[in-house]
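User: Predict the structure for this protein chain, please.
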Amino acid sequence: MKHVLNGLGRAVHHVGHPCAKLVEEIATTISCAIDFIVQVGVLRQLGQDAAGRVEADSSGGVLATVLLQASKLTPTANRSQSQALVPSNPGEEDVTALTNLSTDPVIERLIQSEELLQCVRIKAERFEASIEDAYQKLTTSTQNRHKGAAAYWRTGLADDAALDVVLQCAKEHIDDIDGDAAESEHDKLSEVLNQADEFVAKAAGYNAYVPVLRDLSALIGTTRVMAKSCRALMCESLLAYAHNHCESLEWQARLVRTQLTDIMLRQIEEKDVHPVLLASAKSIVEESSKKSEPKKGDKQPPKKPNAEPSEIREQSEPKKLRLDKNKKRAGAES
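Assistant: Here is the predicted structure, written as structure tokens:
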């Protein structure tokens, strides 16, 4: 069938027909429609109803292919309808016979089929549920101490508070946050958000027919903002931990540098970190750098500060500080 359509378009073009471009566009539209129908058939075979099909298409690959074909189909249909249907010489019978061709009603029925709309709707709803679940797990791991949460750790803490006041507040509210668990949950949420973003982009042509797509898009945006606040909290927690628990300057600097790097790479906004805590963290790095610079006249660089074996191990694994700290506490209590 597609070969016949392609041949028709070439034949009309070859004879120089005034409606040649229109016929070619219509042939392309019908060809895309055939591909679309084939992919819808593949989706239909996955289950007895929309819920079963979405469940069977766990990766979303089949539905994504259908949406891709729909995205190709709609523009070609629009182009074919935008062409002038009345030729420059309407007096010729063989020309005006082509002016009534229209694919618009057929294409509209295809892309708005209820069984397909249901699949898109269910997939969007499942993404909403996945996002809410992943976000809940992240906020549980951060104990809802992030900005925007009811238990925000900086509530009542001034931006120009003394460093010891900031550190005491951090020790009371965010000292026991498990950094590894929070980072893991943050990564999982980011993955879900990225997948949902891709789905929304592919299903953009269905926004007018499936309102939940707009709801999903809004949820993605607001969740990204809150996830960013959680990421800033994780940074503040580690910076405060470096101040409160790291005994050597080198150990402090190692941990602080990883967080400052994240800020530099814009993974965390500098404005989202307590200014006094951030300024002190930067001074730690500066002081550490000055001490590590060889003095004029020295033949060899100065030796690094001595560190306990436990510190050396933890310096090589900065992400494990929370876990190691908890183990030490458990041992002390026993």
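The chain has two domains: 2-111, 121-291+314-319.
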